[in-house]
Amino acid sequence: MDKNVMLGIDVGGTGIKGALVDIKKGVFVSDKVKYKTPKESDPKAVLEVFKKMIKDLDWEGKPFGCGFPSIIKNNVCCSAANIDKRWIGVKLGELFKKELGVKATFGNDADLAALAEMRFGKGKGKMGKLLLVTLGTGIGSGMFMDQKLIPNVEVGHLHYKKSIVEHYASNKAREDKDLSWEDWGKELNKVLEYIEFILNPDLIFLGGGVSKKFKNYKEYLTLDTKVIPAELLNNAGIIGAALLAHEAG
Ligand code: BGC
Questions:
Q1: Cα(3) to centroid(ligand 1), Å
Q2: What's the pTM?
Q3: What mean pLDDT do residues 151-170 have?
Q4: How many Å apart are CA 19 and CA 33, to the nearest integer?
Q5: Which among 70, 77, 141 is the best mutation to test ligand 1's pocket, defined by most ligand atoms within 8 Å of the CB?
């Protein structure tokens, strides 16, 4: 096994993606494998997807890293907004050791996407308080202070209007409500202004698939803090997961 290659898996509310990553270069050295997140996304069903993916990538019996759409503390899943509630309280490391016989290291998906962006993307070498906001099924956030992660910052769950921020400004909200780029962009701007007021970051990166379409809504983002699209787009979660596992040893 090449010690610079690690499997990274990114579990989202919609899809589960994985690839082998060269952790020195931050690039994929295999195809990207993608499965739909099972409708009933309980541990048993999601484990089956992991098994398939590990087989597809010929990675049986080896350690891997995984970004999960939840608060993760010491490899324990502590919340479940866009995944089955039965994950809450699951000791992820123990479960995967028992079921697959391998060491699996978990982190919050947005924290890991931010980690990848800091290592290989536009955050490389940047000091200060940097915030990556991922816009997908939910809204995730990864905050770095002078290149050090402050884990489990959950801006998507700030109270907003009748519920929480992610129900108005995630990419899923845009699609579900069939919002124009202008309407969604203005909503996103309000949400980012709210986040700006609470956290005061020096720079905001936008991640998730919709960051590829930044030019469609850029003009509506009029907040004071500079906002830029992340460079690694939707591969960041996989790369960050591989980095986490590699660093966990
Ligand atoms: C979860 C976060 C996660 C984000 C993106 C939110 O609903 O609470 O932990 O990072 O979705 O998946």
A1: 30
A2: 0.97
A3: 98
A4: 6
A5: 70
